[in-house]
Protein backbone atom coordinates (compact mmCIF):
# COMPACT_ATOMS: atom_id res chain seq x y z
CA UNK A 1 0.00 0.00 0.00
CA UNK A 2 1.47 3.32 -1.02
CA UNK A 3 1.37 6.33 1.21
CA UNK A 4 -0.30 9.29 -0.52
CA UNK A 5 1.19 12.69 -0.07
CA UNK A 6 -1.17 15.52 0.80
CA UNK A 7 0.09 17.68 -2.09
CA UNK A 8 0.88 16.78 -5.66
CA UNK A 9 4.31 17.21 -7.19
CA UNK A 10 3.05 20.27 -9.06
CA UNK A 11 1.95 21.89 -5.79
CA UNK A 12 5.31 21.22 -4.15
CA UNK A 13 7.23 22.53 -7.17
CA UNK A 14 5.04 25.64 -7.32
CA UNK A 15 5.90 26.43 -3.70
CA UNK A 16 9.63 25.97 -4.38
CA UNK A 17 9.49 27.96 -7.61
CA UNK A 18 7.73 30.83 -5.87
CA UNK A 19 10.50 30.98 -3.25
CA UNK A 20 13.19 31.04 -5.93
CA UNK A 21 11.41 33.75 -7.94
CA UNK A 22 10.83 35.94 -4.88
CA UNK A 23 14.44 35.53 -3.77
CA UNK A 24 15.65 36.40 -7.27
CA UNK A 25 13.53 39.55 -7.40
CA UNK A 26 14.58 40.63 -3.91
CA UNK A 27 18.31 39.99 -4.09
CA UNK A 28 19.58 39.19 -7.59
CA UNK A 29 17.54 41.37 -9.92
CA UNK A 30 19.44 44.50 -10.95
CA UNK A 31 16.50 46.33 -12.56
CA UNK A 32 15.37 49.02 -10.15
CA UNK A 33 11.90 49.24 -11.72
CA UNK A 34 11.15 45.67 -10.64
CA UNK A 35 11.92 46.31 -6.96
CA UNK A 36 8.29 47.42 -6.40
CA UNK A 37 6.74 44.37 -8.03
CA UNK A 38 5.20 41.38 -6.33
CA UNK A 39 4.50 37.90 -7.62
CA UNK A 40 0.92 37.43 -6.41
CA UNK A 41 0.68 33.82 -7.49
CA UNK A 42 2.13 31.31 -9.89
CA UNK A 43 0.64 28.49 -11.91
CA UNK A 44 2.67 25.52 -13.13
CA UNK A 45 1.08 23.28 -15.74
CA UNK A 46 0.65 19.60 -14.90
CA UNK A 47 3.27 18.62 -17.48
CA UNK A 48 5.70 21.09 -15.84
CA UNK A 49 6.35 22.83 -19.16
CA UNK A 50 4.89 26.31 -18.49
CA UNK A 51 5.16 28.51 -15.42
CA UNK A 52 2.82 31.51 -15.40
CA UNK A 53 3.80 34.29 -13.03
CA UNK A 54 1.12 36.79 -12.06
CA UNK A 55 2.66 40.17 -11.28
CA UNK A 56 1.34 43.08 -9.25
CA UNK A 57 3.11 46.44 -9.33
CA UNK A 58 2.82 50.04 -8.29
CA UNK A 59 1.53 52.57 -10.78
CA UNK A 60 5.01 53.97 -11.52
CA UNK A 61 5.16 52.19 -14.90
CA UNK A 62 2.62 50.90 -17.38
CA UNK A 63 1.69 47.21 -17.51
CA UNK A 64 3.37 46.89 -20.90
CA UNK A 65 6.62 48.38 -19.56
CA UNK A 66 6.65 46.03 -16.55
CA UNK A 67 6.16 43.04 -18.86
CA UNK A 68 9.08 44.29 -20.99
CA UNK A 69 11.29 44.46 -17.88
CA UNK A 70 10.33 40.91 -16.94
CA UNK A 71 10.98 39.77 -20.50
CA UNK A 72 14.49 41.18 -20.25
CA UNK A 73 15.30 39.11 -17.12
CA UNK A 74 13.63 35.89 -18.29
CA UNK A 75 16.96 34.16 -19.03
CA UNK A 76 18.53 35.12 -15.70
CA UNK A 77 15.43 33.98 -13.84
CA UNK A 78 15.44 30.62 -15.63
CA UNK A 79 19.13 30.28 -14.78
CA UNK A 80 18.37 30.94 -11.11
CA UNK A 81 15.59 28.35 -11.16
CA UNK A 82 17.96 25.82 -12.73
CA UNK A 83 20.58 26.43 -10.06
CA UNK A 84 18.16 26.11 -7.14
CA UNK A 85 15.68 23.40 -8.16
CA UNK A 86 16.46 20.03 -9.67
CA UNK A 87 14.24 19.60 -12.70
CA UNK A 88 14.82 17.84 -16.00
CA UNK A 89 13.60 20.87 -17.93
CA UNK A 90 13.14 24.39 -16.73
CA UNK A 91 9.58 25.49 -17.55
CA UNK A 92 8.87 28.22 -20.07
CA UNK A 93 8.16 31.45 -18.19
CA UNK A 94 5.08 33.50 -19.00
CA UNK A 95 4.37 36.79 -17.25
CA UNK A 96 0.92 38.27 -16.76
CA UNK A 97 -0.22 41.36 -14.90
CA UNK A 98 -2.51 40.51 -11.99
CA UNK A 99 -5.37 43.01 -12.01
CA UNK A 100 -7.16 41.67 -8.92
CA UNK A 101 -6.11 44.60 -6.73
CA UNK A 102 -7.21 47.15 -9.32
CA UNK A 103 -10.53 45.37 -9.74
CA UNK A 104 -11.06 45.22 -5.97
CA UNK A 105 -10.42 48.98 -5.71
CA UNK A 106 -12.84 49.65 -8.57
CA UNK A 107 -15.56 47.55 -6.94
CA UNK A 108 -14.98 49.25 -3.60
CA UNK A 109 -15.36 52.66 -5.26
CA UNK A 110 -18.61 51.53 -6.88
CA UNK A 111 -19.96 50.31 -3.56
CA UNK A 112 -18.95 53.56 -1.85
CA UNK A 113 -20.61 55.63 -4.56
CA UNK A 114 -23.89 53.77 -4.04
CA UNK A 115 -23.80 54.15 -0.25
- Major β-sheet annotation: 3 strands, mixed
Class from secondary-structure proportions: alpha+beta
Number of helices, counting only DSSP H or I runs of 4 residues or more? 4
Strand content: 15-25%
User: Under the CATH scheme, which class?
Assistant: Alpha Beta
Strand order of the largest sheet: 1-2-3
What is Rg? 17 Å
Please describe what this structure looks like:
The protein has one domain (9-114): GMP Synthetase, Chain A, domain 3 (2-Layer Sandwich), CATH 3.30.300. Strands 1-2-3 form a three-stranded mixed sheet, with helices on one face. The radius of gyration is 17 Å and the shape is globular. The model has no long low-confidence stretch (mean pLDDT 88). 49% of the residues lie in helices and 19% in strands. The protein is an alpha+beta fold. It has helices at residues 9-28, 63-72, 74-84, 100-114, and strands at residues 37-44, 50-57, 92-97.
Summarize the structure.
Helix content is 49%, strand content 19%.
SSE diagram, text form:
Elements: H1 9-28, E1 37-44, E2 50-57, H2 63-72, H3 74-84, E3 92-97, H4 100-114
Parallel strand pairs: 2-3
Antiparallel strand pairs: 1-2
Helix pairs in contact: 1-3
